[in-house]
Amino acid sequence: MSIDIKTTKIEQRRITFDNVAEKLGEGKIPSRYQEVMYGVQQQDVFHYRPTWDPEHEVFDADRTDIKMQDFDDLTDPRHYYYGTYVIQRSKQQEAMEKNFSVVEKRGLLHAMDGDLIEKIRKVIIPFRHAEWGANNNNLFIAAYGFGTPMPIAADFQGMDRLGNAQYITRIGLILSNNDPEILDRAKSEWLDDPMWQPLRKLVEDSFVIKDWFELHLLQNFLLDGVLQPLVFQYFDDEIVKHGGASFAMVTEFFVEWFAEAVRWTDHTIKTAAGESAENQALLAGWKDKWLPEVKNAAMPLAEYIFAGRSADVIGEISNRLEARSGKIGLG
Amino acid sequence: MAAKPRRLNLTQKYQLMTRGLDWETTYQSMDDVFPYDKYEGIKIKDWDKWQDPFRLTMDAYWKYQAEKERKLYAILDGFAQNNSQLNISDARYMNAVKIWMQGVTPLEYAAFRGFAMLGRGFRGAGARVACQFQSIDEMRHYQTQMHAFSHYNKYFNGFRQFARIRDRAWYLSIPKSYFEDAVTAGPFELITAISFSFEYVLTNLLFMPFVSGAAYNGDMATTTFGFSAQSDESRHMTLGLEVIKFMLEQDEGNLPIVQQWLDKWFWRGYRLLGLVGTMMDYMLPKKVMSWRQAWEIYWEESGMALFNDLARYGLRPPKYHEVATKEKYRITHEFWCTIYQFSHATALYTWIPTEEELDWFSAEYGELFDTVYRPRYEYWAELDRKGERFFQKRLPVVCNVCQIPIFHTMPDDPLMNCCLVSEYKGTKHQMCSQGCKDIFDHEPEKYCQAYIPPQQIYQGNCGGATLEAYKEWLHIKDEETGEYYGSEDHIMWEGWKAQSGKPADAPA
Predict the structure, then answer these.
(1) Where are the domains of chain B?
(2) Percent of chain A having pLDDT more than 90?
(3) Cα separations (Å) of B277 from B21, B206, B271, B273?
(4) Closest Cβ opposite residue A207 in set B25, B135, B142
């Protein structure tokens, strides 16, 4: 018996969209990331000036002093487009859900020493406001940034920070057996306790920065570069060392998330710095301007956690940040 | 040991997870941190009265959306592997998808950015979070659309240069200027325009014809992303309704501002949807429903019922809705007649409807179609048979507000062209309707800035002052434009059909 297989001859006319082919070079097959990251932001022929900012177009390269031949070079090395982003985060949230469920069922956080619980309450719970501040700042970059890929990754970063703030809220509610008073108290400490004021002032100052790339450097490189290690590595280790191993279960996401976010932050700054000496000087200037303020803002927190060791801890963290800084060309 | 946890209700818990994160800034003033949410004149006394329109935490969002994305991309992969473009009803249908890609997908990107502005811009944290979810959803929509259309782009013309023509092609100024009008307005107007007037009031007129039309015409790629987006859209609709109620409940002084926006954005949205109606009447070889019928169901019944409900807030139905209803018998025909004549300057193909389709129009649109539009098509078909396919040699005058060529007719006289003029700072501006003229006269400083493609072309700012130079500037080749029958898409399609043993289509 013979089988007659009939096939239709289908000839492909082209590989991808022109804007993608122009960026990658003819004949290259784009990844799904590349196919949606180049040239999608409207570029010119704007019909009306924004009534809220008549000095600029809706999307305007002049909202930062950083100059790029092509802002679409500010890509995300994680290659997150919406689909890959939510799928990756959903896996992580599933792991976190299991951790939370074990911690809640076995009462693991409550099993810790009262001193440790108090430290967590004083450090972690008010920190949710700093995460919310980071949400606000990354949404600014998503809104007013330029080019296709940068606002997209900033939007992911902003939503991640909302997620972080919500995970912290959840830790608080576990500790308090769902009594919202723990959150109210943390907020009043964020607002009035001297330990938090330098940081709160810096976060509020960052809210009025108009240059989105300067804001990116301050928030995602400097503030996160000092505070994330301080809170979710050094403080976390401190708690674990003193018998609070279960705490690491509810902060696992923060550690993973930060290690991953650093890749995007460093890559985008490195690309901008590598574009021109002017960009490099501008970025280095911003770093010099803001880094002392960031360290200053972190110091009272470090003192509360580490007392006499605080200067050493901040020193170690600064060295790590300087090493990153050197690698990405900030000097 | 842990005490028994208290119970928190969902509303309380969600508030702790969102607006509970926020604080009143003191080192910087709130007005400096949120500089844009007061200048439109909307008064908000108490942002705490904001009712969260949906309660979605980030971890739940990641989870639900990831499930949807996994399914969607599995289907898109299968679609490409199986060459499912062979299953569409007819290659003429692809022009509906091209319009979407050229005109709507870029707006999804712009909406992502616009809602990020709102997600940063409102001083009420509850509203900000709701807008952030819409922002990232809109990002999703532009990306899933591009991924779905990527496969069609490999075979059909009219997709490849979308990023170039999006900003430059005259007919794409219609959707582009619509969205830019919204995003250059203040935050409350933007959210009223998009979340309420578009997503809540008019979206069924967009979603129904496009996604159902895709399903009827065998386009599973579009159908899949369309239905996958539907649960996102329902969140956006609830946001739109909450915004309107919130503004009106906060201060009675907000009512006239909101009413003026609803008048404007109803008309702006209605004009934009004329393009969609035309797509559904003319570009779907298998029809879902006519524009007239869709208008009756989704506006005359549902839309008016909504405005009856909103009357308790002091709102009345938008101005000129009765004009839109009068135009339901003609708008898509007037539009198609225009695109037919000018399609040699678009990345689309046009054609004369088949005999069977002309009869369907007669049944759906009655006497007006038979007396006014059918004779035009018969005349053009005759020219075509003689080898004189009709194209306009000149560019159209377009409305300075909606940017549609001025082909619309007087509300009570479908044979009389409607062109209204406003003079501003010594320059005359033409408008297609009283609806558009009111919009211009309310904010002339804004609309006199509009980039009017035909004027720019004639001034030589678009690659040169001829149509040929303009097409080159758009990167549109002759074989990608004009008449469908005999086009590259048509020939390719007939070739595929011949191989699979299906009968060929004859032109009308």
Answers:
(1) 60-499
(2) 95
(3) 45, 8, 10, 6
(4) B25
Cβ–Cβ contact B461 with A under 8 A: no
Provide CB contacts within 8 A for A205, sequence distance 6+: B27, B28
pLDDT at A8: 62
CB B344 within 8 A of CB B360: no
- Give the distance from residue A70's alpha carbon to the nearest chain B alpha carbon, in angstroms: 15
A323 min Cα distance to partner chain B (Å): 32
Shortest distance, CA B208 to any CA of chain A (angstroms): 25
Supply angle C-alpha B207, B83, B357, rounded to 5. 50
B175's CB contacts (< 8 A; 6+ apart) are B103, B104, B106, B107, B272, B275
A58 to chain B: which residues are within 8 Å by CB?
A: 110, 113, 180, 183-184
What distance in Å separates the CA atoms of residue A171 and residue A182, rounded to the nearest whole number?
Answer: 10
Which of B1, B11, B25 should be substituted to probe chain A, the one whose Cβ sees the most A Cβ atoms within 10 Å? B25
Secondary structure class of B413 (helix, strand, coil): strand
Among residues B99, B167, B104, the alpha carbon closest in space to that of B347 is found at: B99
The alpha carbon of residue A289 is apart from the nearest alpha carbon of chain B, in Å, by 19
- Architecture of the domain whose range is A63-70+78-327: Orthogonal Bundle (1.10)
Strands in B450-497 per DSSP E: 482-483
Asked if B23 is an interface residue toward chain A (Cβ–Cβ < 8 A), one would say: yes
Burial call B87-109: b when 16+ CB within 10 Å, e when fewer: ebebbbbbbbbbbbbbbbbbbbb
Residue entry with tokens 């289907």: B75
> Alpha-carbon distance B61 to B505, whole Å?
47
The CATH superfamily of B60-499 is Ribonucleotide Reductase, subunit A (1.10.620.20)
Between chains, do B27 and A144 touch, taking CB under 8 Å as contact?
A: no
Interatomic CA distance for residues B208 and A57, integer angstroms: 34
Q: What is the DSSP letter of A55?
A: T
From its phi and psi, is residue B163 left (phi > 0), alpha (psi between -120 and 50) or beta?
Answer: alpha
pTM, rounded to two decimals: 0.96
CA distance A288 to A286: 5
Question: What residue ranges do the domains of chain A occupy?
Answer: 63-70+78-327
pLDDT for residue B503: 62
Q: Between β-strands B413-417 and B409-410, what pairing exists: parallel, antiparallel or unpaired?
A: antiparallel
Distance from the A177 Cα atom to the nearest Cα atom in chain B, whole angstroms: 4
Query: Chain A to chain B, count of Cβ pairs less than 8 Å apart?
Result: 258
Mutation target among B10, B11, B12, B16 for the A interface, most CBs of A within 10 A: B16
pLDDT tens, A12-68? Answer: 999 999 999 999 998 999 999 999 999 999 988 999 999 999 999 999 999 999 999
CA dist list (Å): A99 to A103, A104, A125, A159, B506: 6, 9, 18, 21, 65
**CA nearest to A79, candidates A252, A267, A216, A254:** A267
Q: Rounded to the nearest 5 degrees, what angle is found at the Cα of B62, between the Cα atoms of B56 and B63?
A: 95
pLDDT tens digit sequence for B328-376: 999 999 999 999 999 998 999 999 999 999 999 999 999 999 999 999 9
Which B residues 469-498 touch A at CB under 8 Å?
475, 492, 496
Report the chain A residue with the minimal C-alpha distance to residue B118.
Answer: A143
Return d(Cα A169, Cα B23) in angstroms, integer. Answer: 15
